[in-house]
Amino acid sequence: MTTQSKKIFLFASIIVPFLLYCIYYYGMILKNAPYKFSEFESMQFQYGYGDTLLNKYDSKTGDYQYVNKRDSVIKMKLRLSKNELLYLHRKAADLGFWDFPAKELNPSVKGRVPRFVTQFNYQHKSKKVVYDASYDGPEKLVDANQRLLKEIQKVLNEAEARQRNNK
């Protein structure tokens, strides 16, 4: 056998089956992903202190309510684009939102603790996470929660600024 025929044999007998297996395996994983954007329906985001969640957003209705710096409640209609919702869906997937525990609370801390409720709704499932800023769980989980919350707030602030500039 020549060197070239040995390389062809090696390629055909080892590398090709490995590549086919990888394509099949990862294709099935992606196909059976539990939360697909094609099935995305809406997202709800609420935050405030304790059980008083005055700041709310619902992407299905576009209702957006928040407390400004003067302690006034501002209500408006705010629509996020499909690209913004896709960005939030992907960011949640990147940060492992689907694996977060449903309740991330710290019952030992009393008083005014910021609380965030994030919910993504799909045709067949939904995922809701209640997160207290005082949560003392694993550092990676706390960091992932904080990063997702910042991304959601950033997208809402940008959409609100865009809407104000269009008026």
Major sheet: 7 strands, mixed
The assigned structural class equals: alpha+beta
Mean pLDDT: 87
Rg from Cα: 22 Å
Helix content: 40-55%
- Give the termini distance in whole angstroms: 76 Å
Strand residue content = 25-35%
Strand neighbour order, sheet with most strands: 4-3-2-1-6-7-5
| SSE order, one letter for each helix or strand | HEEEEHEEEH
Give me the count of strands. Answer: 7
Please mark out the parts with pLDDT under 50 across 5 or more consecutive residues, or reply none. none
**Could you say which overall geometry the principal axes of the C-alpha atoms support?**
elongated
Alpha plus pi helix count: 3
Describe what this molecule looks like in 3D.
This protein has 167 residues and is of the alpha+beta class. The chain has helices at residues 3-31, 82-95, 139-166, and strands at residues 40-49, 52-58, 63-67, 73-77, 103-104, 114-122, 126-132. The chain has a seven-stranded mixed beta sheet with strand order 4-3-2-1-6-7-5, covered by helices on one side. β2 and β3 (63-67) form a beta hairpin. α2 (82-95) packs antiparallel against α3 (139-166). The longest helix has 29 residues, at 3-31. The protein is elongated and about 85 Å long. The chain starts with a helix and ends with a helix.
